[in-house]
């Protein structure tokens, strides 16, 4: 298998806001901390959970961070993942890209099993030849490196995502990238990471010649 297009999940294929915000607040309540408005928590959609809680719980040790992550995951695995919403046009775009012969996979900061459940539940899994999650590598950049090491990707592979972490994962490994502007990374954030191209709407991806 050779992957042509690597897609991020949260903020690129699906809008996870409801489930993630509720799961963050569930974790904060479990630790006796006050809930936060959704607007304050949106910035943590995409980065690894440990990194998010280090910011949300400054000065906390590894044990507290681990407790927060566990509380988040308990709610998210039980309920939160079902609260996703597929962005409008995504199914059509993926179908079009597949019809052009592109082999696609998902590269996400979520665990592989959870990402696979989401893709299956929202009928996205038929479009993808593989799902690669955070349990396979410590960072998204390292995850892409592993895919290259195993000859699943090449210099011709593109990374498509909404956050700087996605773009840097491509850049760090010599790949090209598309920064999408319908997710949770601002235009300013993405511009700083210098993606190869931008896409304002999912349908814009149909007009890109990935080669």
TrEMBL record:
Cellular component aspect of the GO annotation: cytosol
Name by which UniProt lists this protein: Haloacid dehalogenase
Pfam families, per the entry: HAD_2
GO molecular function, one term: protein tyrosine kinase activity
């Amino acid at each position: 298998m050779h992957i042509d297009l690597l897609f991020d999940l949260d903020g690129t294929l699906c809008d996870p806001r409801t489930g993630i915000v509720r799961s963050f607040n569930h974790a904060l309540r479990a630790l006796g901390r006050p809930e936060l408005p959704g607007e304050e928590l949106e910035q943590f959609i995409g980065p690894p959970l440990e990194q998010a809680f280090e910011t949300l719980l400054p000065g906390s040790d590894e044990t507290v961070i681990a407790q927060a992550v566990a509380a988040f995951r308990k709610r998210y695995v039980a309920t939160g993942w079902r609260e996703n919403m597929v962005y409008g046009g995504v199914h059509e775009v993926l179908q079009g890209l597949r019809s052009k012969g592109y082999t696609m996979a998902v590269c996400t900061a979520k665990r592989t099993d959870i990402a696979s459940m989401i893709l299956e539940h929202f009928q996205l899994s038929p479009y993808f030849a593989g799902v690669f999650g955070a349990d396979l590598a410590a960072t998204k950049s390292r995850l892409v490196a592993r895919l290259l090491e195993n000859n699943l990707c090449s210099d011709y592979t593109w990374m498509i995502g909404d956050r700087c972490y996605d773009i840097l994962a491509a850049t760090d490994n010599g790949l090209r990238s598309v920064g999408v502007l319908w997710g949770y990374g601002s235009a300013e954030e993405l511009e700083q990471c210098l993606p190869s191209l931008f896409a304002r709407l999912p349908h814009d991806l149909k007009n890109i010649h990935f080669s």
